[in-house]
Amino acid sequence: MDFSFTEEQTLLRNTVHSLLQDKYDFDTRRKVVKSAEGWRPEFWAQMAELGLLAAPFSEEMGGLGGGAIETMILMEEFGARMVVEPFLETVVVAGGFLREGGSAAQQEEFIPGIIGGESVWTFAYAEPQGRYNLADLKTTAKKDGAGYVLNGYKCVVIAAPWADKLIVSARTSGGQRDRDGISLFIVDKSATGVSTRDYATVDGRRASEITFENVKVDAAAMIGAEGGALPLIEKVTDQAIAALCAEAIGGMKKLNDATVEYCKTRKQFGVPIGKFQVLQHRMVDMFMAYEQSVSMTYMVSLKLDEDAAERARAAAGAKVQIGKAGRFIGQQAVQLHGGMGMTDELDVGHYFKRLTMIDTQFGNIDYQLRRYADAA
Amino acid sequence: MDMSFSPDDLAFRDEVKAFIADNYPAELKAKRARSEMTKDEILAWQRVLHKKGWVAPHWPKQYGGCEWSITQRFIWNEACAQAETTPLLPFGLAMVGPVIYTFGNEEQKAKFLPRILSGDDWWCQGYSEPGAGSDLASLKTRAVREGDHYIVNGHKIWTTLAQHADWIFCLVRTDPSAKAQEGISFLLIDMKTPGITVRPIITIDGSHEVNEVFLEDVKVPVENLIGEENKGWTYAKFLLGNERSGIAGVARSKKSIERLKTIAKAELIDGEPLMKTDEFSRKVAELEIDLTALEVTELRTLAAESHGRGPGPEASILKVKGTEIQQRITELTLEAVGNYGFVQAPLGDAANSNDFLAGPEYAPGVAQNYFNMRKTSIYGGSNEIQANIIAKMVLGL
Question: Nearest CB to A334: which of B133, B351, B374?
Fold first, then answer.
């Protein structure tokens, strides 16, 4: 049993920590979020330069040979600063698909572009009728000569406005919710027949609604075997869940620290409000919720390579913990800050908003509870 | 004991429903959030009701109110909530109006009450200060008597819709040497007086609802003092008691639960409506049961009030439970919309608001409403302060 970080891991944390300290203060983030682009390509390039985008790829693929723990460290630091750039979407998710299921040719062709920061990716999977069910797909891919033709609609594709490449889940056979018959395709966002409508999300990021109308793709654009993509999708989205949990604990820590600090300095009735026991116990509950979340984040990060059922339980369990703790900590941080917690000016409300939406991403508490129960 | 409606009540219900159906301004029907509305739009319904004489159901007749019974007021609130009419602004009608007719002099009643009823004067509330929130009595805004005027200096915060206001009712310190509660006075201040600056505060949902109000050497005629100097805390508490009893929002919450159910029936999970799933329908059921309890608790409180008691410290229950329920509704509504909870609706002057609204028409703004409603357990005396009131005043702890 050992929960300590290696020297290299500590170095990685220090690197990203000081980068964010220099380049990602709250005011900068606010400007970025309100800008027309909504993100900073030049910051993305800097992340690439420092090797952050290479962290979880093997050395053979040109990466730094890190794994889930390195991703966790990075995401936790990103969460602490509410970084909007699409590390999760590009490196964790798309990178995960290429790493876990891509052919040698695909890995060779695409991973260098991700590591180098030249290419931004995202995963277009959700559909309006499907809610969080990864297999509930109306989007179809029909065989057409040597390739496929895609038709369908994907909703709330986060980071799509910044992306040039999409990984799209589509049905090559079977019924709307069958586990079999799902395939994954690499699609250029600029391909004929792909149309997007972009919008801002409530947590400071951007998303698109994407329509695929007779979009032609080569057979070489398929990741993995035809019709057999769901296990891969589940594996990679569980990796995404672990990364989201790490992002969440980064934000929770910020909220808890800010709240304790505020309650020590804010005076009412002649004393710091932190002297009131009802608020002390509230902050103790916030602290315990955070610690339990850290534990679940470590746990899921260490279990991503277990068999599918154990991994699913770990991911679902961690996501439930993070969902509940994120809601509680977010709400109480706002409450204990009083009116100040409600202002756009203070970072507290922004962390609250991001934590709220993390619960929605890749399935909320109810969905993951059901998944946990089914997997148990 | 009797919770049913008499034939007269039923006739009254038909009458108010018909009136709302025939007279609610059509152009307001598409507006859901007050932050999307212009000043005239916010006031439009009040003007209609004023013409009809129905603008102040709880005011005494002699001041232009309806003096409706609690049953009638209950029916009226239900009918307005069902029709989703714009809520009337509480600052004049529910807050300062009753203070003026209870503690004000004849000149003040004649000058202010008609214009509160008509909406010609828009009021805002100058209570909180940066250093005086939960501990309201520690407020520092100073009013110094100079001849026929007070000179007021200070800084108010969280002033809702001050950007539109013609008048502000202010708690000010007139005797700094007295014990906290005893040196406070209640002043009415014309917002056009030189020395008043309003600075907007944007909240986490992107809207501009609240403000800071800076008062710098503001000259206020002595005749704008309510009641006696240094007795302002009594009037302030009277007002807060009224605020608490109005804050339960039962009828509006019923309507919001209806809306939540409509959404949960439209949203699918594995091809089935979300509302059909055990986990979700039970959460909605719990919420409805909580709301039913609150509804009857409110009626009991109102009944006691109509017999000349209250609104006592028990009214704090209505504030705590009412806001918890309102918040829970927005929380479940956000859960219900699933992925489309991410969509930001255009609100106020949010720079990055969308002109394209993705997803079903009910989704945009649901998250922002959830964020915005966190204010309810903070304002009007935080829920922690309400618990203190119950502990001390009701339980004698």
Answer: B374
- Reduced to 3 states, what is the DSSP secondary structure of residue B330? helix
The CATH number of the structural domain formed by A122-228 is: 2.40.110.10
Q: Which of B78, B209, B243, B298 is catalytic?
A: B243
Angle at A12 between CA A9 and CA A17, to 5 degrees: 125
**Torsions phi, psi for B272 (to 5 deg):** -105, 150
Residue of chain A whose Cα is closest to the Cα of B283? A366
Burial (CB < 10 A; 0-12, 13-18, 19+), residue A228, is: middle
At B98 the three-state DSSP class reads helix
Q: What are the DSSP calls for A304-372, one per residue?
A: TTS-HHHHHHHHHHHHHHHHHHHHHHHHHHHHHHGGGGGBSSSHHHHHHHHHHHHHHTT--HHHHHHHH
Q: Is residue B82 part of a domain?
A: yes
Q: Do B134 and A209 touch (CB under 8 A)?
A: no
| Active-site residue, B272 included | no
Which chain B residue lies closest to A333 (C-alpha atoms)? B374
Pick the closest to residue A349 from A19, A17, A33, A23 (CA basis).
A33
Closest-CA distance of chain A to residue B343, Å: 5
Kindly list the residues from chain A whose CB atom is less than 8 angstroms away from the CB atom of residue B279. Answer: 366, 369-370
Contact A283, A242 (CB under 8 A): no
B358 and A209: CB-CB below 8 Å? yes
Three-class DSSP labels, B177-219: CCCHHHHEEEEEEECCCCCEEEEEEEECCCCEEEEEEEEEEEE
Write down the residue that tokens 């991973």 correspond to: A111
Q: How far is CA A273 from the centre of its chain?
A: 36
CB-based contact A341 B128, cutoff 8 Å:
no
Task: Give the pair of three-digit tokens for residue A203.
Answer: 């947590």
CATH fold, domain A231-375, is: Butyryl-CoA Dehydrogenase, subunit A; domain 3 (1.20.140)
Buried b (16+ CB within 10 A) or exposed e, B288-319: beebeebbebbeebbebbeeeebbebbbbbbb
Of the candidates A155, A177, A278, the beta carbon closest to that of B358 is on: A155
ipTM of the complex: 0.97
What span, in angstroms and rounded, lies between the C-alpha atoms of A270 and A287?
26
Domain A7-119 maps to which CATH number in 1.20.120.80, 1.10.540.10, 3.40.50.720, 1.20.1510.10?
A: 1.10.540.10
Which of B138, B341, B368 is closest, CB to CB, to A360? B341
- Whether A360 sits inside 8 A of B342 (CB atoms) is yes
Query: For A126, which residue in chain B has the nearest alpha carbon?
Result: B339
Give the number of other CB atoms < 10 A from CB of residue B352. Answer: 17
Taking contacts as CB-CB distances below 8 angstroms, the residues of chain B near A278 are 384, 387
Q: Does A176 touch chain B (CB under 8 A)?
A: yes
Full residue range of the structural domain in which residue B206 is found: 123-230
Q: Does A344 touch chain B (CB under 8 A)?
A: yes
Cβ contacts of A306 within 8 Å, gap of 6 or more: A314
Residue B113 Cα distances to A162, B90, B224, B234, B239, angstroms: 57, 14, 13, 20, 16
Per-residue pLDDT of chain B (397 residues; tens, 9 = 90+): 777 889 999 999 999 999 999 999 988 887 767 777 889 999 999 999 999 999 999 899 999 999 998 889 889 999 999 999 999 999 999 999 999 999 999 999 999 999 999 999 999 999 999 999 999 999 999 999 999 999 999 999 999 999 999 999 999 999 999 998 999 999 999 999 999 999 999 999 999 999 999 999 999 999 999 999 999 999 998 887 776 656 789 999 999 999 999 999 999 999 999 999 999 999 999 999 999 999 999 888 877 777 766 667 878 999 999 999 999 999 999 999 999 999 999 865 444 556 788 999 999 999 999 999 999 999 989 999 999 999 999 999 9
Verify whether the Cβ–Cβ distance A357 to B341 is below 8 Å.
Answer: yes
In a domain, B284, yes or no: yes
